[in-house]
């Protein structure tokens, strides 16, 4: 009978590039791909700033029979911050008013490398370890398809029958895949990490009425444990991007790394959220985004003195859509690129320095200055002045009121 | 010589209703109106929760020769929160990403009463004490014109020549208007207060690179002085409005009063901002909005489990426009009312309870629950389940990707 | 073999309500449902104004073995226009700038009846005859699921193997399903019709460089064949809905019927379009919407004198989203309902009369008047006047220009 | 007495550049500027395609005492279409759903030249002949201030007392300003013309219930007088701009000129509108935009096959705002430029050819083709195919429906 929809092993796959972390799950996937498709597997392991060594992943890939020339390990931290995180922060992107999109923004970068490596090694497929209920599968696959419309995508979690922890472990044991001791028990939550953030979701967090365990956090000290003395930090911006901290010019990844340290030390950037997934259900996530939280505050502050009102309000109006596009996986879409062009156009003179005070979870704007400042003391002072004729306000109000008055008259007032 | 535009004393005014605080400035205005227009002056003093006694205003009005029947003093706190603050919070309104619109939202209410009193007493004009450089003149006047298109509006600050402190004081002394001792010196900043917030702007705050003096704040303790133990608070919502705190049902003004106390005690709700005025320049303002800051977090949290994604994202997209309308003074406009209808429609099932942790400036979501919750553990769990077929995700992704793939193919990929 | 995704006959179905036209395709579906699921089939045939007799559908259903109590035939024309077409026209909805959504708007109505009948007769499933490549399957199913989240939906075209004309005809012949003579050949295009429009797509129209055959059109004479004398028509509106024509009060369906006659006689309402389907590809459609084309022009014209500018521009900004929602099948969604609340709020005073001239394909506004008109000759005249002080314009312009001037100065001008 | 607001002769003006048509009104202004300000007057007369000789303007300026080196006459037609009209058409801009912005788009160009000439000749002011009730004063002045924040703007119609026809004529006669015979009577309407359109408004058109006189139109034959045979025209596009007609490559102004001829001959492009002015009232305007009407239809048609859905819908959503900005005079604003960047980004592959049929007022799309077409017959056909798996639609629908189903369940369904 003709197969229906997607089905394990059904596709002909010659060579597949797998997004490989070196962990248990993607190691099982590696083996399963070999067995199910009888194909050559190429691994791609990226340093996105998740804070893990990559060499163990290489070792493990070799152990699982991957040829050295099929093992790709790349440090993509600068690319990640420069080409993905920074453009997104130019838009002040927040999903559902609060979420800094730390997971969402990393996925297109990974797919970009998967597709590029596939072209290099002549692979016809890519594979990822995201489940069938989440957003990440969508983000991986939309990006991959947008970059290579002919690529095959294998999503083992939607295909195989290793759908319980027990079966997965059994499969791994049978194939002599090394299993770290702590992997035998059920993890209380799953995490995703990169230079922008770490997320937690699942099991122990599933009741949105219950606070998370303080012990869970890894990127920030508890605000209650943070120093009593505030940390002041000065962030320099050029064309909307942070280019230096406290007088020292830094690369994009260095900026974010430093802001993570400063924010994390001061208990900044925790978020507990029930969010709407693109696949249709609500889920609860906890995020730590110390550097990103600082950066957003700083960017809004530098914009506050350098950005024209019309441009600023326009940006604010398109931002929710932009954030939604990134959350939903449409980074490589014509509409995200068009909004990016709009956003980037507004950043041409977003230059200057912002001073922030970090203290026990708080990010407090303590100053902003710019060679391109649009803030003009002479226009805003209460003094008599020549630059602004207060009587102009009357005409301004009268004409703004005219349609409201005509409307009221038409209603018989 | 033919008068051009607005000009002091030029209009014929029979009777004018003045928004009267009892302070020096509006007392001078009171006198000036009498002298300039030779007209009867009616005073309106409102308790908006600004934290001042109103009886002294009555006394002072009497002293300045206002007839008792021309003195209107009203406690409008419940009306303010119920009909203005709460509808605005249903929209999660933030101006320029951060400002809770505490001043903006009070102005239409005052104008509403001015116009109503004018109708009651047969006055043909209203007057206010806002200057010619600010937003408040616009808000007062647009509201007044929208409610009574035939009303005359007198804005003495745009008309008279008392444009320096010295001249104002001289004028007051000549007319024996009582001057509080602290009014002789120049105030370091001007403030506006009501149940939602207090604002500070001007002189001492004019350099946006300089932090405000800690001594300035009046509504919140410094986060550094706040208690070491967190305060947990549970806020109950019905149709998007807060109706109870910690199990006690409260009126709108009681809710906000209580949240102000709780927030203020924990150093919550301070904001230092450079904002874009409707009249065209940037200005720097400092705000304390303790209760409002708590309320916004709570409202977003209750929406996070009760609001459909489509409705939530739509609201987020129209919010900046809605906030801009309120900031600019268009509360009584067809477009604000139309967006309100949209917003209110989404709040029909925004019921439930949010638990927040207030601590040293932080507002942390600690739990949310609702009889109308859309969060479904069975749909979000990693377990195998019958309700969600993971394989549906493939079709979902494939069709979402189709236009991106066709686009890539057309570009020769 | 383990079934993957949706599969014919796989679901347990007890009783299914089929959207039944009486034509060959849905008759085959009827039989196929009986055979495949062994279930009771209930038919629903609606008079949406498609211009076909319904009694033959009843006869045919009986012939195919449907019990009389399982045959539902309803005239839903008034409901269609009143509850679906008119609300949509209040928004001036156009998909992709030009398409009046004639097919899209009928689908949710059909699903509403399918789901209601399912509840009445105790059916657990509904079925429709839309294909797997089009928008209609989405519209039918999203509506059905939104109205009954537990309903099963059967879409035979996505399931069966009758995927060629030959097989379909063979299946019909084997089951002695009557086949109209003209059904043996391949139709040059498929159509969908209701009181709002008729659409054509497929085969003969597939090359977007080629004009359609003039003989195809059925709802409008060719502009070239239309009368030389224009038809003037006056349409009366109340709260944004057309309620009368040429002085005669009419029901919603009567209004649209009459406008179809008048528009059709004058060659009005043809559209040749390449549009973007929700499922991801572009398709070419030809539409005739004579009455709708007239109605849109009339509605815009009555709004032009009765709607406030702020409300009008707001509506225009949300319209594309609203049209997209309807096109994509989200009629029964919280966000469509929220936008509807916004739109309806603006229509409260959209009353009056519009005079149009219909002539050889043209719809020309020839006049508009309203008891609620906001057009005021005294304000617009070039004469000197007391109502509008031209000098107010200076202040209006100066303050609107201020930020632009400050921006230019900051750029060194 | 201190002057209030703007006042004639009050400003010190050294040298002023006047937008000079050579007509009676701007000739009177010329004289009035000399007399009122005792300043040197420089004239700028532009060929925008309004269809008038420019040499008589030179003669008249000389006659009125303007030095030859102070007379600037420029043919700006190519600049107008290339830098203003075409960018606007990339956005498919329509104000209030129907108006092609023919007057609005010309004003910033004129101001640009006024300001440039002012810089060349060392003038400190510019002047225009727009009245105090219209939009044009706003457009002229916002553009001038944005380009030179220090420029003075003189708007005689808001300042002088020549506010009746009689006084204006008397003033002209006294100064021996030549008056064309037809200028003695009152014109039945005022017009504005350029290569994009001609407008009519005022007196004879003031009752929106009355049709305009057929004799008024000058750019198009009456549809009733248009040829019986249709005109087919093929328009070639590159990156969203029309670059050729019927196989002949043309410059921007040539394209628009040719489309005006073709459209005008076929009675295309008339519009009768009540619109909302920026200054607050509604006004009635009649427009002829033959070439623009054709161009809009062609541009939408070429986009229909070359533009991605996401980009297309995004453009449609921002279009009303973009059109409003241009209508209101904010061409030279950061937000218009930001939206332009968005729009231009989408046009990168909007290449190809559109075939239109022009006939008695109708513009009918007769074909579109493109080397970058996204229309794919193989994806849209009803046939069985390998490229599109119809069963993907099930998952697509199921996940799109999920939130709607969960919502229905939460409502107890």
TrEMBL record, chains A, B, C, D:
Keywords: Amino-acid biosynthesis, Arginine biosynthesis, ATP-binding, Cytoplasm, Ligase, Nucleotide-binding
Residues that hold ATP according to the record: 19-27, 46, 129
Arginosuccinate synthase C-terminal domain span: 189-405
Subcellular location(s) of the protein: Cytoplasm
Protein name as it appears in the record: Argininosuccinate synthase
Superkingdom per UniProt: Bacteria
Residues that, per the record, bind L-aspartate: 131, 135-136
PANTHER family the record matches: ARGININOSUCCINATE SYNTHASE
InterPro entries: Arginosuc_syn_C, Arginosuc_syn_N, Arginosuc_synth, Arginosuc_synth_CS, Arginosuc_synth_type_1_subfam, AS_cat/multimer_dom_body, Rossmann-like_a/b/a_fold
Pathway given in the UniProt record: Amino-acid biosynthesis; L-arginine biosynthesis; L-arginine from L-ornithine and carbamoyl phosphate: step 2/3
Pfam families hit by this protein: Arginosuc_syn_C, Arginosuc_synth
Annotated residues for binding of L-citrulline: 99, 104, 135, 139, 190, 199, 275, 287
Assembly: Homotetramer.
Keyword Kinase in record: no
């Amino acid at each position: 009978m003709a197969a229906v929809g997607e089905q394990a092993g059904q596709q002909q796959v010659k060579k597949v590039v797998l997004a490989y972390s070196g962990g248990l799950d993607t190691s099982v996937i590696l083996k399963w791909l070999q067995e199910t498709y009888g194909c050559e597997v190429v691994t791609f392991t990226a340093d996105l700033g998740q804070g893990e060594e990559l060499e163990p992943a290489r070792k493990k890939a070799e152990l699982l029979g991957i040829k050295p020339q099929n093992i790709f390990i790349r440090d993509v931290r600068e690319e990640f911050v420069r080409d993905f995180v920074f453009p997104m922060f130019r838009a002040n992107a927040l999903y559902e008013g609060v979420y800094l999109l730390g997971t969402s923004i990393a996925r297109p970068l990974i797919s970009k490398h998967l597709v590029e490596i596939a072209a290099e090694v002549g692979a016809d497929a890519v594979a990822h370890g995201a489940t069938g209920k989440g957003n990440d599968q969508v983000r991986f696959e939309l990006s991959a398809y947008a970059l290579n419309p002919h690529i095959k995508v294998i999503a083992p979690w939607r295909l195989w029958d290793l759908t319980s922890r027990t079966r997965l472990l059994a499969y791994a044991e049978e194939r002599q895949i090394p299993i770290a001791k702590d992997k035998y028990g059920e993890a209380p939550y799953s995490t995703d990490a990169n230079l922008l953030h770490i997320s937690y979701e699942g099991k122990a967090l599933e009741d949105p009425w219950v606070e998370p365990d303080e012990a869970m956090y890894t990127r920030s000290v508890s605000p209650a444990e943070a120093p009593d003395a505030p940390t002041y930090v000065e962030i320099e911006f050029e064309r909307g991007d942070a280019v230096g901290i406290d007088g020292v010019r830094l690369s994009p990844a260095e900026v974010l790394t430093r802001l993570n340290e400063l924010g994390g030390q001061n208990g900044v950037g925790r978020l507990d959220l029930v969010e709407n997934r693109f696949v249709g259900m609500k889920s609860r996530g906890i995020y730590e985004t110390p550097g990103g939280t600082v950066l957003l505050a700083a960017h809004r502050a530098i914009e506050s003195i350098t950005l024209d009102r019309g441009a600023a309000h326009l940006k604010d109006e398109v931002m929710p859509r932009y954030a939604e596009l990134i959350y939903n996986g449409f980074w490589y879409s014509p509409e995200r690129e068009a909004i990016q062009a709009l956003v980037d156009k507004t950043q041409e003179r977003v230059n200057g320095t912002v001073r922030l005070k970090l203290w026990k979870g708080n990010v407090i704007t303590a100053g902003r200055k710019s060679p391109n400042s649009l803030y003009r003391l002479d226009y805003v002072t209460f003094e008599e002045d020549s630059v602004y004729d207060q009587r102009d306000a009357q005409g301004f109000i009268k004409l703004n009121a005219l349609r409201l008055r005509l409307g009221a008259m038409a209603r018989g007032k």
